[in-house]
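ARCHIVE RECORD
Type: protein–small molecule complex
Small molecule: manganese (II) ion
Source of inputs: curated submission
Record status: active
Notes field left blank by submitter.
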Amino acid sequence: MTKKYDIAVIPGDGTGPEVVAEAVKVLEAVSKKYGVDFKFKEYGLGGDLYLKEGTLLPDEVIEELKGFDAIFLGAIGHPDVKPGILEREILLRLRFEMDLYINLRPVVLHPGVETPLKDKGPEDIDFVVVRENSEGVYAGGGGFLKKNTPDEVAIQESVNTRKGVERCIRYAFEYCRERNKKKVLTLCAKTNVLIYESDLWYRVLQEVHEEYPDIHINYQHVDALCMWMIKNPEQFDVIVTNNMFGDIITDIGAIIQGGMGIAAGGNINPEVTAMFEPIGGSAPKYTGRNQINPMAAIGAAQMMVDYIGEKEAAGLMLEAIKKVLKEDLKGLEAGKMGYGTHEVGNLVADYIG
Ligand code: IPM
Ligand code: MN
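STRUCTURE (tokenized, with ligand):
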């Protein structure tokens, strides 16, 4: 029997639609090969819709999205919209309102891909960041007092609930066990300064560890961890961290694995519909030029296929991605691939068959 998956697609802004089209092309190749049927429904959310109709993310759309098997997002961010509006009201709102409390961001250097790290290769860069995705400073707590006066006060609060921290840390332990590689879980925090929030994370790590004696735990302050990601990335297996630190360290992760052209992630809550996205932005200056690298979007689609349980198909997608990275692409930056956006999508889809 053919398995059917309903996928909501949000191409979004800038180069989002272009990279999404290539990922969909690859998913269609997978579909033919394996008899899995992906049914796509597109949602035209993003900067253009906002500028035209003032619509950001209607409540009914959120409800509808909850009914899909997965959500695939291109990019959100428009040069004519003030920074923060689309990001907060679309991307972050999706993460928050669907309670997608994990942002899973693998950092893997594939063979043939150049890293800026001297003397490091694929055997050194292979870890996963488990970023908390529903709390922290991203919860938006705070306010101004005496705004626009010399006595102005701006407060930005970090929300860390016991439940939120615990479910994130437990997910990271489970993931580390299932991944079955170095079996080391590193907590990235800042216990020497954030004496409340990092203290909670540290205590919860110790407590949950009792359930996972097969996993080694490790702790690093975020500043030191940034340094170690560059100096000795080979020490990492799974890193767990709060929303803001996770945002920052995964940009370092992205560049050491070859850049924004390759970095992908998943917004996950095991109980509800997950959302997958390339982690680079909408890259407006490349819009419509057939120059942007679709590999991050194809990688996000690969994570999605793996996540919904089509392991064999996901395996072949990964093989195809690795083949094209190793044998075909000259580089991963926009305009420097030796191929256009469509051609890169074709190369991956053709390998799949
Ligand atoms: C990311 C992005 C977002 C974030 C922005 C666009 C709000 O940087 O997905 O990493 O900060 O989470
Ligand atoms: Mn980011």
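CURATOR ANNOTATION: The mean pLDDT is 97.
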